[in-house]
Amino acid sequence: xxxxxxxxxxxxxxxxxxxxxxxxxxxxxxxxxxxxxxxxxxxxxxxxxxxxxxxxxxxxxxxxxxxxxxxxxxxxxxxxxxxxxxxxxxxxxxxxxxxxxxxxxxxxxxxxxxxxxxxxxxxxxxxxxxxxxxxxxxxxxxxxxxxxxxxxxxxxxxxxxxxxxxxxxxxxxxxxxxxxxxxxxxxxxxxxxxxxxxxxxxxxxxxxxxxxxxxxxxxxxxxxxxxxxxxxxxxxxxxxxxxxxxxxxxxxxxxxxxxxxxxxxxxxxxxxxxxxxxxxxxxxxxxxxxxxxxxxxxxxxxxxxxxxxxxxxxxxxxxxxxxxxxxxxxxxxxxxxxxxxxxxxxxxxxxxxxxxxxxxxxxxxxxxxxxxxxxxxxxxxxxxxxxxxxxxxxxxxxxxxxxxxxxxxxxxxxxxxxxxxxxxxxxxxxxxxxxxxxxxxxxxxxxxxxxxxxxxxxxxxxxxxxxxxxxxxxxxxxxxxxxxxxxxxxxxxxxxxxxxxxxxxxxxxxxxxxxxxxxx
Length: 520
Ligand SMILES: Nc1ncnc2c1ncn2[C@@H]1O[C@H](COP(=O)(O)OP(=O)(O)OP(=O)(O)O)[C@@H](O)[C@H]1O
Ligand SMILES: [Mg+2]
Prior knowledge:
520 residues; seven-stranded mixed β-sheet; alpha/beta; globular; 4 domains; Rossmann fold; disordered N terminus; six-stranded mixed β-sheet; 17 helices; binds magnesium ion
């Protein structure tokens, strides 16, 4: 499926012999075993410009960005800065040229505090400051960019969204002139995205350059001066951004066909109660994270939990999955108590779980796709690996996982493809019959084609009578899929509404803790 180059329009900066590009890639080639990740890629970003890289999962975006910042070295081709050829042998080398990258997979040290992580690798003399001076300095930088962080917090305790904020603050702290942002908004809530975009605009006005990567097409249209589309490692199109393109056109350029993201709600009557949560409360080191939560999810029903990250969603999901014991209250799956009985028991009762933290909890990075797919199989059954191989290959095909085959190591998958492996495992019928599916942000980081596939699979699971609990910060997703919606705020359910009649303004207000109907 080769695609003709779409030269729709050129960016405004291309008019005539303007200033040299701030950073360029020239005929870059990068191979990994069995994959041509970048195939003669030309790319450049001008001073004061936002240039977006767009493409399907596994198209080669992160790989290109990694070479632009010095993390990977090209097999052939070269990089230039302000028109001069440079060789970057490490990210430190990139920093010396004012290039910093915010990575898709976090590269923070869990046991360090936020401020320790921020100064890690920077060349200034921050390490000479005492702890409180350092924390003040880091907090001030974060605040000035409208990205509040708690400098003294241990990174391991933070939510995925909070960690992303730390990554961004770290790059900004290092004083980069060229910032490579690899899906920075995937784990930010809308208000944080707006803040980030304000910063991006302020930075470009000050002459800095931004290379932006995102699968959220609305954002891409909003923020980009130019967009370059990658497909299977090759540049297949250029479009000028803002105002001259729309999300439909971008989707078509990316996947080569029209995408429909409308989904219906369950039209059929729902069945008996599969998940029963009663008066659930959880207190962690004296802080109440869940209070008095009670609700049920029925067979054939999708219940959505909306809320801003850090309001108890992760703990609620982990408690249902048996990974955390509640302080009081109970969880039952199909009438059997799972409280205090651990994650294996919950799985045996028919739970499938897609956690928020994919590479931390969901997948084992050092294991192959095949072994990751087998990870949650019923332990009482001896698995014959030769028979599951074809099944793994079928899943790789169904989910369009870009990999060399079932033996491909999870760590070496692109971000979206790693996520697809986890979804394939939890959504496929191959495991113990699923009765209850708990999914956290199932489409985060997926390209539009994959989002379509995953939403259809969730619909199928619901039609097949599974009870689904959808926990997501993507309000559009919760609103368009759920039969019933609960809003979680500070560990409490503060609003409940049928999905059909849910209003964006009301749900949004409840998420911000501003609900007149709040029962807290
Ligand atoms: N370290 C690595 N070792 C082996 N293969 C790799 C490695 N990193 C990336 N790849 C492969 O290179 C290809 C491009 O991956 P890349 O991460 O650049 O994709 P991407 O466009 O960023 O996708 P996504 O949207 O899913 O993040 C994929 O086929 C991936 O499996
Ligand atoms: Mg990527």
